[in-house]
Amino acid sequence: MEAIPPPPPRILIVDDDESVRDVISVLLREEGYNCVVASGADMALDLAQHDETPLVISDMKMPGKDGLWLLEAFRDKHPDTSIIMLTGYGDTEAAVDCLRRGAVDYLLKPPKLTDLIRSIERALAKRRVELARKRYQKKLERKVRDRTTELRAALRDVNTTYQNTLLALVSALDAREHETSDHSQRVVEYTTAIAHRLTIKGAELEEIGRGALLHDIGKIGVPDAVLLKPGKLTPDEWVEMRKHPDIGFNMICPIPFLSIPSQIVLSHQERYDGQGYPRNLRREEIHIGARIFAIADTLDAMTSDRPYRKGTSFSNAIAEIGRCAGTQFDPEVVRAFLDIGEEGLLKIKAEMLARKKAKAEGKVEEKPAVPETPATGTPAAEAPAHDK
Ligand SMILES: [Fe+2]
């Protein structure tokens, strides 16, 4: 079957002189082009609005809106249209100006037919190449967009996998020591809230949250006889218990993703005044995440019920933490903590409870935070059995 040739491209001829319009259009029609004519710039724009116009041949000097005005209007409204300008003798400067403003060519009036056809063919060929380039670029941009979306989804998956791995790690500890459930979750929330008050955000905030989540992960390596002992620990047993920050650090520090959280795990039992363990670090030697965590952990330990005592009120715990600013805790972090206030802290706890309840009833997806885990509070006023 013979292929049907494409229709000739439409050429719009714009000239205020009717005879010029007629001569050019008749000659070009004879050569097989599809011509339309306009007597001025407004009419030309009107015609171009209704049908695709690959090429315009326009006179430069026209009463009212001239060829230059039309050129600008086409650049603005129909950037894919090529424009050839017709200029009179002695108007070379204007002609050069046309090229600078985006015309593909200019011809002196009256143009020779051969020159005109050569210029038209050159303009149309150039336009075809330009359109092909634009299509290719659009295709590339679409591909890049699609790939970026895929990459983002893959990163989200990786992140979820990381998060689930951390939750599994914490669950492993919880399986051994489940005296105080939800502790890690609350500690992460309090830690994050204080960090936020200190204007920590983005990746750093997430790292600190992970450190708080994993703080006691090293207890996996503490023997059952020590970790689960109901009574007081002997000095030797304390030596074992106090190894848990190092054990936790060694467990997770080789994982690049957990490099910062491992620092928090290592120093979560340190005190601002240097009386903590395992390295007796002081002040800014302790990672900021661990200095924040210490307050969050103490708040939760003091306000949570234990088998051997009732939890104290938030106001008591807040007052006690305030008293320990500069000794047990970093005073600047205490200030940020006090800024949240009792109401703010109770709200955080209430929101967590509401989320847990909704999750238990299958109403909402679990917040990507933490599962139920055991506690290792270090309350200033009253320390729990195993975490002094
Ligand atoms: Fe601990």
Number of domains: 2
Q: What string gives the helices and strands in order?
A: EHEHEHEHEHHHHHHHHHH
Annotated CATH topology of the largest domain: Hypothetical protein af1432
How many DSSP E strands? Answer: 5
User: How many helical elements?
Assistant: 14
Percent strand: 5-15%
Q: Which structural class fits the helix and strand makeup?
A: alpha/beta
CATH superfamily of the largest domain: Hypothetical protein af1432
Most strands sheet = 5 strands, parallel
Helix share of residues? 55-70%
How far the N terminus sits from the C terminus, by CA atoms, comes to 92 Å
**Shape call:** rod-shaped
Give a verbal description of the structure.
The chain is an alpha/beta fold and 388 residues long. It folds into 2 domains: 10-137, Rossmann fold; 177-360, Hypothetical protein af1432 (Orthogonal Bundle), CATH 1.10.3210. The protein is 56% helix and 6% strand. It is built from 14 helices and 5 strands. Strand 4 (82-87), helix 4 and strand 5 form a beta-alpha-beta unit. Helix 6 crosses helix 14. The model is unreliable at 370-386 (pLDDT under 50). The structure holds fe (ii) ion.
List descriptors:
388 residues, alpha/beta, Rossmann fold, Hypothetical protein af1432, binds fe (ii) ion
Quick structural summary:
Helix content is 56%, strand content 6%.
Give the topology, please.
Elements: E1 10-14, H1 18-30, E2 34-38, H2 41-50, E3 55-59, H3 67-77, E4 82-87, H4 92-100, E5 105-108, H5 113-176, H6 183-197, H7 202-213, H8 224-227, H9 235-241, H10 244-252, H11 259-267, H12 288-303, H13 314-323, H14 331-360
Parallel strand pairs: 1-2, 1-3, 3-4, 4-5
Helix pairs in contact: 2-3, 6-7, 6-12, 6-14, 7-11, 10-11, 11-12, 12-13, 13-14
The protein binds fe (ii) ion.
Fe (ii) ion binds near residues 216, 244 and 387.
